[in-house]
Amino acid sequence: MAPADRVERAGEPAGERRSGSLLLVRHGQSQANADDLFAGWLDVPLTARGEHEAVRAADLMAENGLLPGAVHTSLLSRSIRTADILLGQLGRPWLPTQRTWRLNERHYGALQGRNKAAVRESVSDATFRQWRRAFRGRPPLADDSADIERDPRYARLPPDALPRGESLADVQARMLPYFYDIIAGQLYSGLTPLIVAHGSPLRALIMHLDGIDEQEVAGLNIPTGVPLRYDLDAGLRPRIPGGTYLDPAAAIAGAAEVAAQGGGPAPEPRQ
Fold first, then answer.
1. For the chain: N or C, fewer Cβ within 10 A?
2. Per the residue annotation, which of 27, 72, 107, 198 is the catalytic one?
3. Tens digits of per-residue pLDDT, 228-267?
4. Domain annotation for the chain: domains and CATH numbers
5. Mean pLDDT, the chain cut into blocks of 10 residues (271 residues total)
């Protein structure tokens, strides 16, 4: 989406807009992360390390004088739990929190629940990279969406919105309308929105904000539990491309850990 399109969709005259800060946090380490599994839309809990990461994320925000004014999570427990811990640590459990399926992790289709290393060993490295990292790479589809259809969280979604497998492009297509319809207005009103979500929707959003291409996004890895700050101008363009991690050393180590999941060759990291 071009910058002009972004301004037009935001619904406020450009001359009246203010810049704002946006906070992004990938949920703390989940049990699926620890076990090297494709989690997707499966509900998995945080590990003890993941809960500690949520506390540390809150401390980093407080140390940097960044208090969120609104919170957005997915409908998955690891995202919700991270946000709850974080807000409690900040003494702000009362903050308005909106939850949406549009911030859910990418649906990994028939790969959900499977060990990443085992999947990689069963296919070529090129196929594994395509399924896991390529912008338009869609994994093998699940046989049906019956599990989602039975889940009360998604009862109001039409059948054609229930995925059986998604690419990162699919995630971006469902996530961006929420960003512009809901979060952009909060930025322009002077709030500091906090998005507590998952690796794929955050990669898709960063790709869009920074205008990076499909090849570069393959090397973009989001660490768990490390807040990423974006200061955006009136056109919702980053003043500092790539944003600023509140703990750069932890972000580098966490991104390397994510890149190594599944074993085998990792994509070249984003510079």
1. C
2. 27
3. 999 999 999 999 999 999 999 999 999 999 999 987 544 4
4. 19-233+247-259 (3.40.50.1240)
5. 39 55 98 98 98 98 97 98 98 97 98 97 96 97 94 94 96 98 95 98 98 97 98 95 98 96 59 45
pTM: 0.92
What is the rounded (10 degree) CA torsion for 202, 203, 206, 208? Answer: -110
In the residue annotation, 105 being an active-site residue is answered as: yes
| Model confidence pLDDT, tens digit, residues 135-170 | 999 999 999 999 999 999 999 999 989 999 999 999
* Catalytic position from the list 53, 72, 105, 166: 105
The answer to whether residue 12 is catalytic is no
pLDDT, residue 14, reads 47
